[in-house]
Amino acid sequence: MGKRFVIYTYGCQMNRYDTETITGLLEQEGYERCEDPAGADLVLLNTCSIREKAEQKVFSQLGRLSQLKRARPGLKIGVCGCFATREGEGISRRQPAVDLVFGTQNITKLPELLGGLAGGRVVDVAAVEPDFTELAPIRREGSLSAWVSVARGCDNFCTFCVVPYTRGPEWSKPSRLIVEEVEAAVREGFREVTLLGQNVNSYGRKSPGELTFGGLLRRLDRVEGLERIRFMTSHPKDCDADMVGAMAESPKVCEHLHLPVQSGSDAVLRRMERGYTAEEYLSKAALFREQVPGGVLTSDVIVGFPGETERDFEGTLRVLEEARFDSIFMFKYSPRPGTPAFSMPERVPEEAAAERFEEAARLQRRVTEELHRALEGHVVEVMVEGPIPESPSPCEGCPAAPPGEAAPPKRFAGRSRGSHRVQFVSEGLPPRPGDLVDVRILRGGLHALGGIWPPSALLMEESAS
Ligand code: 5AD
Ligand code: SF4
Fold this sequence. Notes:
This protein has 465 residues and is an alpha/beta fold. The chain is built from 14 helices and 19 strands. A 6-stranded parallel β-sheet has the order 2-1-3-4-5-6, with helices on both faces. Strands 15-16-17-19-18 form a 5-stranded mixed β-barrel. Helix 12 packs parallel to helix 13 (350-373). The protein is globular. The termini are far apart. The relative contact order is 0.07.
């Protein structure tokens, strides 16, 4: 029997994409992926470092795996991802059961590193330029939406963030390879791609003669068989008319922009070294709304950055109110050793940060609910993911399926172009995963929209009664 491996993935989409590449590489080496570490020859942790909590999870998981290894000494334990890159040797010093540590920039060397394990522990977290001469093998998860990394690393050095240290400098993948990768995904049956990068919209800036990000969107819009293009994450300072114009012009590019603001205070934004003011941010948001009708804007917000005063925080509340984000990811500032903000004075006490978090979350929940409710009555295009399992006992008033006959599924889930989760009742033939259907929204909730397909079904019912 071939060797088996388990991989646990923490953190962002980029890590999940890396896991797909690692899986592709290991399959090429004759490994088979499995879910149970008790039956595995190799267990990998693809780690995250963005906040302290993410790092704590790694050692608790390693503790459990080291016990497993005591019972099965042949088991190899590997750690990769951002935390591995940061800590290198330090991980195996703290947890001697670890056999292999490799960094985010050393993934394609994995076959070679595994070969070295016969001679003892292997650590490789060296910073290297990515090899963009050909595509690495990849085993994609899911079947509808594929991740495609367009750039690696980050040159921005926002003062709170570890990413430039864990993923190295920014490199754009040549557009020729991106097109090839997207076309290959479409041939495999994927209908949607999400372009990934720490800062996608500075794409190509360091590569003379390369397309701009807007140019890349326009080029991918021509890929036949592809239905939808998404991307993340964009930086406000690189959000320009070329990019927004490409979103407006390219029918396959979804009307969703994730544009992290981080704070609404100019003083805090300056200390974060984000490179824009709150006003400048809001004018980019306005450009997006103006050029992309029905555009959905989402964001990331940090509360409790060192030195953040009540007044600074009020600036953040003001931006939430004015930008009217569809939803946000909100974080309490987490001090990361090695970053400039770590040694900034005036840390905000945990209690004040928690209160600000709650207050901003309350405001945002109200805005989200208002925006979602405003979609009631509208028709949105949904890419069907699949049926929602029916509860085993039909609710009162629902017709039960005749005995011996399974009722066809009636409720389905999918995603709108604006990235909303949509659950809908199908009044026609059951749609299949990947179908694009027009759903009339009947209820806009905080976390999902509820509706009916086809959109005319309800009108027909209404006129019949
Ligand atoms: N503390 C809290 N949030 C952080 N983020 C990045 N670094 C930190 C940190 N040290 C958040 C930012 C970023 C998102 C991916 O994670 O909002 O946009
Ligand atoms: Fe981190 Fe800033 Fe780079 Fe985003 S742009 S990855 S927040 S340094």
